[in-house]
Amino acid sequence: MAGKKYCIGIEGTAHTAGIGIVDEKCGVLANERHAFTTIEGGLIPRELAEHHAEKMPELARAALEKSGIGWGEISCVAFSSGPGIGAPLSVAATTARMLSLLHNKPLVAVNHCVAHIEIAKKKCGSKNPLTLYVSGGNSQVIGLESGRYRVYGETLDIGVGNLLDSFGREIGLGFPAGPEIDRMFFEAEKYVQLPYSVKGMDVNFSGLLTAAKQKIPAENKKDLAFSVMHTAYAMLVEVTERALAHTGKKELLLTGGVASSKALQKMCAEMCAARGVKLNVCPHEFATDNGAMIAWNGMQKFLAGKTVKPEKAVPEQRFRTDAEKVVWI
Ligand code: FE2
């Protein structure tokens, strides 16, 4: 292993505490994680921070053990600096600063959304895709243009995963509701009319959520779940298709926790087939929040010389996808 470079990456933007280790070719040596979960659903920032603070030491130990390498071989420490929830972000940044100072390793601050795209591209062999990144907190249509990941469209309020989890909680599903609600898509018998909200290239989901909640007593749960998904996904597919037409890109890359939705994959596949666009879906392990994606974009930035001093390694809750120059491509 002499001469090889390794990056350890720390994820902590929301419910997942994750630590991954990758080499300079995106070989993943370890990808350990533990997600905060509750029966009632919902994320309380202080509880997330406590969860992450408790789990980080054991995740770091497990990742190193699994990787078979020691601190002497690690080249840099990367962490998700944002966007995300302040309290758990602080735990990720503090863990990274502490490990960096303790082991005398350079630090790299990583944008969580960009990290999702970069590992998805690598794992799917995708070169220049339009990305639909869909998760609990984020829903964005993103493409690389003139040195930045440009956001062509996005949610103006809640992420589509948040919509599904909130609706799932109302019909008695636990958190996360995604897998169970996704099955209902294929078992429904009729569409229930719900508000469809596309504004230019952006979407919003809170009106849809309110309307769906109001219809719970009167409608069959499966039909309503199907209708929530069908409406929300149709909104996302519409703006994604327009971004494909605008950019002329020939690949669509689906990533984020909601990328695992078979219903969303089906609707994207139909649109892509009609346009002659190739659809790639990021493997689940690397599509949901994880440490390896932070480690991989950390490695890319480290190789491009983009390190930060420990005193500058602070959370950026509103770190925009298009805020940083993509110097590593
Ligand atoms: Fe994410």
Account of the protein in words:
With 329 residues, this protein is of the alpha/beta class. The chain has 2 domains: 6-116 and 287-323, 2-Layer Sandwich (Nucleotidyltransferase, domain 5), CATH 3.30.420; 128-284, Nucleotidyltransferase, domain 5. It has helices at residues 45-67, 86-103, 112-124, 160-170, 178-185, 206-215, 221-247, 262-275, 284-287, 291-303, and strands at 6-11, 16-23, 28-35, 76-82, 107-111, 130-134, 139-145, 148-154, 198-199, 202-203, 251-255, 278-281. A 5-stranded mixed beta sheet has the order 3-2-1-4-5, sandwiched between helices. It has a 5-stranded mixed beta sheet with strand order 8-7-6-11-12, with helices on both faces. The longest helix is centred in the last third of the chain and has 27 residues, at 221-247. The mean pLDDT is 96. The structure holds fe (ii) ion. Fe (ii) ion binds at residues 112, 116, 135, 256, 289.
What name does the CATH topology of the largest domain carry?
Answer: Nucleotidyltransferase, domain 5
Low-confidence segments: none
Strand residue content: 15-25%
| Cα end-to-end separation | 26 Å
CATH homologous superfamily annotation of the largest domain: ATPase, nucleotide binding domain
Q: How do the SSEs run, as a string of H and E?
A: EEEHEHEHEEEHHEEHHEHEHH
Total count of strands: 12
Reported for the largest beta sheet, the result is:
5 strands, mixed
Reported CATH architecture of the largest domain: 2-Layer Sandwich
User: What is the helix tally?
Assistant: 10
